[in-house]
Design goal:
The structure is a homodimer. Chain A is built from 14 helices and 18 strands. The first copy, chain A, has helices spanning 2-17, 19-31, 42-58, 127-144, 166-172, 220-223, 230-239, 262-270, 275-282, 295-300, 341-354, 380-393, 407-416, 441-465, and strands spanning 62-66, 73-78, 86-92, 112-114, 117-119, 150-156, 181-184, 196-201, 203-212, 218-219, 304-313, 322-323, 326-335, 361-370, 373-374, 398-402, 420-424, 438-440. In chain A, helix 1 packs antiparallel against helix 14 (441-465). Strand 11 of chain A pairs antiparallel with strand 11 (304-313) of chain B, so a sheet runs across the interface.
Chain lengths: 466, 466
Amino acid sequence: MNGDSSMSADVVRHLNDTQEDALADLFDFLRIPSVSADSAFRADMQRCARFVAESMQRAGLTTEIVPTPGHPIVLGERCEDPQLPTVLIYGHYDVQPPDPLDEWTSAPFDPVIRDEKIYARGATDDKGQLYTHLRSLQAWMTVAGKLPVNVRFLVEGEEEVGSDHLDRFLEEHRDRLQADVAVISDTSQYGDGIPAITYGLRGIVAAEVHLRGPSQDLHSGIYGGSIANPATALARLCGGLLDADGRVRIPGFYDDVLPVSDAERAAFAELPFSEAEFLKETGCQDVWGEAGWSTLERRWIRPTCDINGMVSGYTGEGPKTIIPAWARAKITCRLVPGQQPDRILDALEQFLKDRCPPGLTLTFTRYHGCPAFVLDPTGPWVTAACRAVEEAFGTPPVFIREGGSIPVVMSFRQILDVDTLLLGWGRNSDNLHSPDEHLHVVDFHRGTTASALLWERLRLTADSAS
Amino acid sequence: MNGDSSMSADVVRHLNDTQEDALADLFDFLRIPSVSADSAFRADMQRCARFVAESMQRAGLTTEIVPTPGHPIVLGERCEDPQLPTVLIYGHYDVQPPDPLDEWTSAPFDPVIRDEKIYARGATDDKGQLYTHLRSLQAWMTVAGKLPVNVRFLVEGEEEVGSDHLDRFLEEHRDRLQADVAVISDTSQYGDGIPAITYGLRGIVAAEVHLRGPSQDLHSGIYGGSIANPATALARLCGGLLDADGRVRIPGFYDDVLPVSDAERAAFAELPFSEAEFLKETGCQDVWGEAGWSTLERRWIRPTCDINGMVSGYTGEGPKTIIPAWARAKITCRLVPGQQPDRILDALEQFLKDRCPPGLTLTFTRYHGCPAFVLDPTGPWVTAACRAVEEAFGTPPVFIREGGSIPVVMSFRQILDVDTLLLGWGRNSDNLHSPDEHLHVVDFHRGTTASALLWERLRLTADSAS
């Protein structure tokens, strides 16, 4: 034990000595415009998958780039010793589209360090965080010539477009992916200098509604009032999703929501939370949401419904007197434990159809969905992770939930029967999915250290359990 | 009397004998690409103004081409005898842009006759219709050496871009434009072979509402439910504009609406109207509008509110899990007699502001507006026009309203205190504003004849009134 403990100190020392190399390598990763949503970047996606595979190989893993009907999945594995615990590490190499480009201070695929932050699309979501695990494994191989745990490493390229082919892949490769615990770094710290272990996630369903009316845009004077206007109707359909108190009005939406204990709500209430900081972070004038719940609760334990985009008719300068031929909106609902994605989508579709006036054709398209996730925060793997994080960050992590969804966490539970440690090194203020996405340099290095220590802690946990 | 009546027969005979000349001259007019929206055609606009002035001169009018900050206005006048009635004729020499060019069967500025229709941009809107009046006045001068009425002729070049400089021009030239009645041919017949006198137009107000929320697009998982979403809020604001029965829900919207008599509604009900044809024309599956009113009534005598365009957040393919930073909608209301544009805009703005959730900044931008127009269809000038049209078309015109707005008609009433006869020779199916715009040759000749007879009828009306 002691020998390994000093070994992990050597690994950490090595990581500290090679920080510049790590950044240079990460920058190569960030330079690849791996935008999964846009087929123009298909070749870059392939190139990015190869980059990931080569990084795994440098950590002693055997790798395979597995094609899917979409973008390839990169698999890596190393069985050090069947007696050791097996960890399944997950990440994604695809990134959100960088639009709107003119709102970036520096080019999204030309990483730079400014004010001790790494600026690039994917800096925090998820290349920068994923890379901490690649780097920590490489350090173990360099320093110790072996890993403290057996590793299965799965990195996909379709997380930002719904991971359409992941579940099928998990089902087909179930045997190769058996593990004792999974690790994902695709969440955030709770606040600056307050690392967190995320033990709950909201689920999600996503859909698009398209209304078609006249065969082409019509003169609003000649025809206005005599036919259903797709834009006005879409506003009516979507405008009814929330009531004035912020409650979702879809019938049955709250029926299956599981209650949250008073103790848990009390723990949330004790977390430091500054509304002023929150408003500064979001750039909003005020908070607003479901009556009767705090801002953290509205984000973590309450389901909601948002319009993510909407377009119809004339959107240029000045007026144009038309009735648009069609209108379209994108809608997502965030789910909490108990809610079933299919039931929610059924209810949403019915809600919209019930309110659609005659003469319009409504098309409802379903995208990806997954239920919410929640984990016992007192289990042994969580405790091991807690210690690694505390050692790397110099302070114990807090236990939080997150408002976002990581569908793979539910897939791991449902298909592989494995629970996931969600260890986020970045921050909510890192502009995920937005212009000027970034990752603090210090978070990158602390994350890499925590990752290196984690493998050792997981081994020790398995030791003491056996 | 009899002498003049036989004189008008001579004028009509002359017009019939010179139809080919009239077409050749109209074609010269149509060949000038007078696209007011595009500064590339500025020289053509000047050339077109000169063409109009020369045409007026051939009718014995003295002319002036008056510069404006935009395109020039052509003024013509002839005072035959102070005892005669004075007619103000209005038209516009500018045309819509011809795009999309590849959807034209023949070039838009190379007029041709196909299937007894004149194909060209401006054939019906408004050069072809305007030209009937230029031609009929020329014929009177040729045959009789004088006009039956005094004429003020105003032809502008900015109708298709909002007539920005017209009202100021009317105010500055009020004295030169005094008239007993105005005549405009920029509307349509009611149907094939059913000429119409349009005695009512809806008014319009136009506005834009812009909601700003977070300083940039935010992750809908991390923040969803805790801040007001501009897209969801905009849908809520705009979705409330109409109720399920198609009534506008803006408080006070209907307060000033003047009632329409049962007799007028009965007359509308007697007009031939095919819902199947209407659906074919619009490409809609069904009609829809305010409960309790027919399709024609919904278009002509009921006010309404339409969203003309709407945009927010992500509008590309697939889902994107964001809360948009802002959302924007363009709104127009069509007004009926009694409604005041400013009051309606005030009420609309208040309605939107009252429904805006905390945390969002609402900006309301007002565009142009004008009240509705309605004329007593039994008045002497209308009766005179009715006889001229009946004689030229061989069938009496029907009395209709239109759903669109012709702001100049309201400007004439408000600034010059003169009412307008709206006499449309073309058809709604003439592809106004679209590729393959055309005017039936027969409509052009009938319109020219009706115009020639109109001047005589207006003189007789004034005679009998005095």
